[in-house]
């Protein structure tokens, strides 16, 4: 090796910095709150040869770990095969096709080559969650779609920017197929601007250290990240570890979907085998292969947060292609639930399989749902229509070091939920409560965190409510003798009568009028370890603070 | 709708102004984590006295009095004492808080515990969060306002009285009343406050809307809860200190630093106690702004490196950036205006390790103060940034034995060899140099990130280096960043105390408009500015401190409709036309994002005014006694020692206080002073200005 280890570290943090600056620029300039506030976006650098991940922003949405390397790889392959027009300087591709290495349609990717001396040095790519890409329901989360065409506009890789200019013809097609199109121009420019920022910063790094040195460093960093992951995996005693996780239903057929996972450790690497999982489903709870892989990586990064995100870190992880299951969906299977819900069940399966082997590093199952509640309606006085999203957290699993936190963010996200005051400013609704869900944390030596309990009333006009949640049938799993967290509960009160949706955690277009209410109780986290071993003082404190009743505490903790 | 924020009215009575003639002398005293620093300034004699004594954590006022004694300052003869205290900062960070109760809207007592659904780290599903007020002290009562300010359910006064009684019985000393949408209509909070005052045995009552009148119930609630839970502590502390000073014959107002870089009377400071959190770092930034303005270098990035962390702030046009959205730790937002000081990465105690991939990493683990770096001699075994400085001759190895008798340079070098060098294939010197190189690159990246997040290119600024370790690294970091100049003030180690001496009186006002620009009533906007100016002038008038000049600055915060992040736009006057606002915003937006958005209309969100009373000018050249300066550079030289800059070079060492007034130094050189060391690397050239600052022109990269 000709590179000294110090230059290597400096280039490593330089590449990281390029990505972090792209993340920051994207959020600050974006219009859609999903990107600007919830940081539902990610930026990274990808190799020119095969699109493999070189570095990724540390503030990107975790579920995008590794996804963009598949879309970039597909793009590079399609260009080589002549299926996509080759790029010229100043061109930026847009693509959201899930089957070409993506998630759901709303995650729209941009990709731009970085040119050095007339050749492509690497690719920059980012993903932003657009608030709408057309389809049957506003926002794209149709709980009852049976084909991808119902979910929205599907874009193959096309050059949206040519020679630095937005192509008005392609843009016009997009705008004609999505809702609230007039505000998208701001997000489109923000997404492109983030790539330009990355290009400028990367160019400075290349000018300073030289293209060959940086190229060499990238190769070296990749093999070192692989070594680092192998060193972590070596802690896992060789053997096969199994787990099962369930999704309530696909939204169309009211039966649980099963994820069966066997993780085999051989001292060097891990093999993930999902054989025996449910076949592709009719509703939108299918996962495309890129999302399935990314969910495994995401879970491993939660377990080993110190290993930097790069293709090298994924090398020791072999995921057998789960052909014939709902985790490897093919066109035209609907996929809107893959990024938000299926991904979290996959992560739960990974945690559940490995917690016995790594009891100091893995927690019991977290609530693991994005808790999407969408309300679309109209304000009678102005005639203006609105779409409100309430995302919510839940309890985290207990872990060796302590109890799970309450109302934690989804496993795959890092976004904040909007304040009640902001929701009430923007939409004609009234929250009657926004509270800790008492009794919901799974029992354990370290108990699970508590879920959220909110109730919202429609104040004016009419509205339609949709839900894409999970864990309504089975609570988040306890670990090492701990109890499960409480299940997700949805209750709709319409015309004074209360009911639970047929699919428990999923429903579409429930008609409501002023005075009707929706109450949601999100899952608690799984407990960790034998509840009888819990410190008595902590049990008493939870009772004193009203987190459990005295009766519950006696029942759960003995 | 327009709402307008009024700061808490001056509570308590002002002491009568005495007839005593002004002596023209005053003192700034800053209590830091380790030391209490004092700067005394006699404006008639243009003389300065300094003191540095250990901080007395159990009762900070002891250290304050000790500092006065150490500097031989007669408190009775002072016109003014300005005090920076960490009382509230420490209380919050260590959770040593007063027992505080919350009364809130039915259905919402858990807002403070639920937060905004986050987690402590992006990766890793573990970590803890403890709400600032425990659940059994958070009570709910029926009442409800709507977002438009209309009443949905009346205030249940009976339930309120019962709740107050319960909190008193549970032993609460302070109280928060925090209702949903009180920023839109505070009537219920105000009425509840009246009732509470009837039964609450002390004045420790915080109304949620009083500190910040902005929506977001978690952030507003936490800010109010922090205020209440430190209020009794701060009140007791300043009262005790004022009494002690009064015993010494000091009969004037004691002023206390706020986190916005201004100061307020000790009589009222506890009302808005949350504003004193983080006042120490703010004070240092104020001193930097003052120093930079006098030096003709008004655009600065401040670089304050201490033992465990480094603080960075941005100053534009001698005006420090202020933020209303600071989160002082995980899920602890304090949304009052504070100088925007960001804590980034490494400090002198950051540990260097070789990671599992065989890469050398510096930080984030820190040796802290116990055991501290190896060179502290308190049992530290792992090499740190400070140890690297020691091993490379950048810090005086002669000082090793003043800290501890049993650590030698060889111990340190052996640690670099065995813990880093063997794994990296480097010798001890190369390992230590590698640690500095990585630390420099990381800190430069962190400074760049702060600068960019505030919308500026760091290369347009000079680096202002202070704190014990700032000047050791500043020139290297500047070179890495492409920053052309470094300003090293005369007394880098007492910058926070200097901030107390130079600080202005300052009041910040924010009024929320939140309307499309083309729908704004511009007369109403102008009237808002007028009202803010009026309030600010009245507030400054009440402080009864000599003012040399009044400075008023206006700005707005705007966004394109549909965006959530705001962009601050400074205004040249309080009477902008609609067209001017539009043009200024578009210009600022393009500068930040390189994007034009003619398709989308802008909105005016906030109207801001800062009213600043500037104190009489202080002559900073007195910070280093002119009589002590030598005639030539050679006379200021204390010796020569080998220092490692890519190779060992015999490097001259100078004593800062002895530098001749017109000194010019070329690197490599080391300038030492009481509590600080400046390293000039080869190629750097430092000149001294009239105030005794060293202005370093950073040389090209080797």
Give a description of the structure.
By secondary structure, chain A is an alpha+beta fold. Chain A has 2 domains: 5-224, no CATH class; 363-558, no CATH class. Helices cover 29% and strands 22% of the residues of chain A. Chain A is built from 12 helices and 20 strands. Chain A has helices spanning 5-29, 33-36, 67-80, 168-175, 184-209, 211-233, 289-303, 311-314, 338-354, 420-426, 536-544, 550-557; strands spanning 41-47, 53-56, 92-95, 107-116, 119-129, 158-162, 165-166, 239-247, 257-265, 270-273, 317-319, 372-378, 385-390, 429-436, 452-458, 462-468, 489-494, 497-499, 506-513, 517-521. In chain A, a hairpin with a 2-residue loop joins strand 4 and strand 5. In chain A, helix 7 (289-303) crosses helix 9. The longest helix of chain A has 26 residues, at 184-209. The radius of gyration of chain A is 23 Å and the shape is globular. The mean pLDDT of chain A is 93. In chain B, 31% of the residues lie in helices and 27% in strands. Chain B is globular, with a radius of gyration of 26 Å. With 702 residues, chain B is an alpha+beta fold. Chain B starts with a strand and ends in a 5-residue tail after the last strand. In chain B, strands 1, 2, 3, 4, 5, 12, 13, 26, 27, 28 and 29 form an 11-stranded mixed beta sheet that branches. In chain B, strands 14, 15, 16, 21, 24, 25, 32, 35 and 36 form a 9-stranded mixed beta sheet that branches. Chain B has a 4-stranded parallel beta sheet with strand order 7-6-10-11, sandwiched between helices. Among the domains of chain B are: 25-91 and 235-276, 2-Layer Sandwich (Nucleotidyltransferase, domain 5), CATH 3.30.420; 99-203, no CATH class; 350-438, no CATH class; 504-614, Dna Ligase, domain 1 (2-Layer Sandwich). The longest helix of chain B has 31 residues, at 217-247. Residues 1-19 of chain B have low confidence and may be disordered. In chain B, helix 2 crosses helix 7 (217-247) and helix 11 packs across helix 12. Classes of the chains: A alpha+beta (558), B alpha+beta (702).
């Amino acid at each position: 090796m000709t590179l000294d280890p110090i230059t290597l570290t400096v280039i490593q943090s330089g590449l990281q910095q390029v990505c972090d600056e792209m993340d920051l620029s994207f959020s600050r300039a974006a219009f859609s709150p999903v990107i600007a506030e919830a940081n539902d976006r990610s930026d990274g650098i990808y190799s020119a040869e095969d699109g493999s991940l070189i570095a990724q922003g540390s503030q990107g949405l975790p579920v995008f770990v590794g996804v963009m390397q598949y879309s970039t790889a597909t793009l590079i392959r399609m260009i080589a095969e002549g299926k996509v027009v080759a790029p010229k300087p100043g061109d930026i591709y847009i693509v959201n096709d899930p089957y070409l290495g993506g998630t759901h349609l709303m995650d729209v990717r941009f990709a731009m080559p970085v040119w050095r001396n007339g050749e492509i040095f690497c690719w920059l790519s980012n993903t932003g969650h657009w608030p709408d890409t057309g389809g049957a329901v506003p926002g794209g989360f149709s709980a009852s779609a049976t084909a991808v065409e119902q979910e929205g506009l599907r874009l193959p890789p096309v050059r949206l920017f040519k020679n630095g200019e937005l192509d008005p013809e392609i843009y016009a097609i997009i705008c004609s197929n999505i809702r609230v199109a007039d505000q998208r121009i701001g997000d489109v420019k923000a997404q492109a601007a983030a790539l330009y920022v990355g290009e400028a910063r990367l160019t400075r790094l290349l000018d300073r250290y030289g293209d060959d040195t940086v190229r060499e460093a990238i190769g070296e960093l990749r093999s070192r990240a692989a070594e680092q992951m192998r060193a972590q995996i070596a802690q896992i005693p060789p053997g096969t570890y199994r787990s099962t996780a369930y999704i309530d239903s696909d939204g169309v057929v009211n039966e649980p979907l099963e994820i069966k996972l066997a993780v085999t450790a051989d001292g060097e690497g891990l093999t993930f085998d999902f054989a025996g999982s449910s076949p592709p489903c009719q509703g939108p709870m299918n996962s495309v292969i890129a999302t399935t892989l990314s969910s495994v990586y995401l879970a491993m990064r939660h377990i080993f947060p110190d290993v930097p995100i790069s293709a090298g870190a994924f090398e020791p992880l072999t995921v057998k292609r789960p052909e014939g299951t709902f985790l490897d969906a093919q066109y035209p299977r609907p996929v809107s639930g893959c990024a938000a819900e299926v991904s979290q069940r996959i992560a739960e399966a990974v945690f559940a399989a490995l917690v016995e082997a790594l009891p100091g590093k893995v927690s019991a199952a977290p609530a693991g749902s994005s808790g999407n509640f969408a309300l679309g309606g109209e304000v009678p006085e102005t005639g203006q229509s609105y779409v409100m999203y309430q995302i919510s957290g839940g309890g985290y699993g207990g872990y060796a070091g302590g109890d799970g936190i309450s109302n934690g963010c989804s496993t795959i996200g890092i976004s904040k939920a909007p304040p009640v005051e902001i929701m009430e400013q923007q939409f004609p609704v009234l929250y009657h409560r926004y509270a800790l869900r008492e009794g919901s944390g799974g029992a354990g030596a370290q108990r699970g965190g508590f879920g959220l309990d909110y109730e919202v009333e429609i104040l004016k006009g009419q509205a339609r409510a949709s839900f894409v949640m999970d864990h309504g049938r089975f609570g988040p799993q306890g670990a090492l003798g701990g109890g499960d967290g409480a299940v997700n509960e949805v209750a709709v009160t319409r015309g004074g009568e209360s009911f639970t949706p047929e699919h428990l955690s999923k429903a579409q277009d429930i008609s409501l009028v002023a005075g009707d209410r929706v109450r949601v109780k999100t899952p608690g986290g799984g407990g960790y370890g034998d509840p009888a071993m819990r410190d008595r003082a902590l049990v008493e404190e939870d009772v004193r603070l009203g987190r459990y009743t005295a009766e519950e505490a006696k029942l759960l903790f003995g | 709708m327009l709402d307008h924020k009024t700061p808490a009215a001056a509570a308590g009575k002002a002491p009568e102004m005495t007839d005593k003639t002004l002596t023209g002398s005053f003192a700034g005293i800053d209590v830091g984590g380790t030391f209490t620093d004092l700067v005394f300034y006699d404006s008639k004699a243009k003389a300065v006295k300094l003191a540095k004594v250990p901080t007395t954590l159990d009762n900070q006022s002891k250290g304050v009095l000790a500092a006065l004694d150490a500097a031989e300052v007669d408190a009775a003869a002072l016109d003014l004492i300005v005090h920076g205290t960490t009382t509230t900062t420490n209380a919050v960070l260590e959770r040593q808080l007063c027992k505080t109760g919350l009364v809130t809207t039915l259905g919402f007592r858990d807002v403070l515990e639920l937060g905004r659904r986050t987690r402590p780290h992006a990766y890793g599903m573990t970590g803890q969060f403890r709400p600032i007020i425990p659940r059994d002290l958070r009570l709910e009562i029926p009442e409800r306002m709507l977002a438009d300010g209309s009443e949905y359910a009346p205030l249940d006064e009976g339930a309120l009285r019962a709740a107050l009684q319960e909190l008193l019985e549970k032993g609460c000393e302070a109280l928060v009343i925090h209702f949903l949408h009180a920023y839109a209509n505070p009537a219920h909070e105000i009425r509840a406050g009246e009732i509470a005052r009837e039964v609450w045995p002390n004045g420790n009552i915080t109304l949620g809307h009083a500190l910040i009148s902005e929506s977001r119930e978690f952030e507003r609630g936490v800010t109010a809860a922090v205020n209440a839970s430190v209020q009794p502590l701060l009140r007791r502390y300043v009262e005790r200190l004022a009494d002690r000073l009064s015993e010494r014959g000091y009969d004037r107002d004691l002023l206390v630093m706020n986190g916005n870089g201004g100061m307020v009377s000790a009589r009222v400071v506890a009302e808005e106690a949350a504003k004193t959190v983080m006042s120490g770092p703010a004070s240092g930034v104020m001193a930097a702004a003052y120093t930079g303005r006098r030096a003709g270098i008004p655009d600065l990035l401040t670089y304050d490196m201490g033992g465990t962390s480094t603080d960075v702030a941005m100053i534009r046009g001698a005006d420090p950036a202020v933020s209303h959205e600071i989160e002082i730790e995980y899920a602890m937002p304090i949304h009052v205006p504070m100088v925007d000081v960001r804590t980034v990465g490494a400090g002198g105690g950051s540990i260097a390790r070789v990671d599992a991939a065989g890469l050398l990493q510096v930080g984030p683990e820190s040796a802290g103060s116990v055991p501290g770096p190896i060179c502290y001699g308190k049992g530290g075994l792992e090499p740190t940034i400070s140890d690297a400085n020691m091993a490379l001759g950048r810090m005086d190895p002669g000082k090793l034995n003043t800290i501890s008798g049993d650590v030698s340079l060889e111990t340190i070098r052996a640690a670099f060899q065995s813990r880093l060098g063997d794994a990296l294939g480097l010798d001890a010197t190369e390992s230590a140099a590698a640690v500095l190189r990585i630390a420099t690159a990381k800190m430069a990246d962190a400074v760049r990130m702060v600068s960019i997040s505030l919308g500026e290119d760091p290369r347009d600024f000079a680096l202002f280096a202070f704190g014990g370790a700032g000047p050791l690294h500043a020139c290297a970091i500047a070179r890495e960043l492409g920053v052309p100049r470094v300003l090293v003030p005369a007394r880098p180690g007492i910058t926070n105390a200097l901030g107390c001496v130079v600080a202005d009186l300052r009041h910040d006002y924010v009024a929320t408009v939140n309307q499309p620009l083309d729908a704004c009533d511009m007369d109403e906007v102008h009237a808002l500015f007028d009202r803010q100016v009026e309030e600010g002038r009245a507030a400054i008038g009440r402080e009864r401190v000599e003012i040399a000049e009044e400075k008023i600055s206006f700005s707005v915060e705007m966004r394109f409709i549909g965006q959530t992040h705001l962009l601050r736009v400074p205004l040249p006057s309080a009477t902008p036309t609609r067209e001017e606002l539009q043009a200024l915003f578009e210009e600022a937006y393009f500068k930040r994002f390189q994007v034009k958005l003619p398709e989308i209309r802008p909105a005016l969100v906030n109207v801001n005014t800062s009213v600043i009373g500037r104190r009489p000018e202080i002559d900073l050249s007195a910070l280093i006694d002119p009589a002590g300066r030598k005639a030539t550079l050679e006379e200021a030289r204390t010796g020569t020692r080998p220092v490692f800059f890519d190779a060992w070079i015999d490097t001259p060492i100078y004593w800062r206080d002895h530098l001749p007034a017109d000194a010019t130094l070329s690197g490599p050189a080391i300038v030492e002073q009481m509590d600080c060391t400046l390293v000039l690397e080869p190629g750097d050239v430092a000149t001294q200005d009239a105030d005794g600052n060293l202005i370093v022109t950073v040389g090209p990269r080797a």
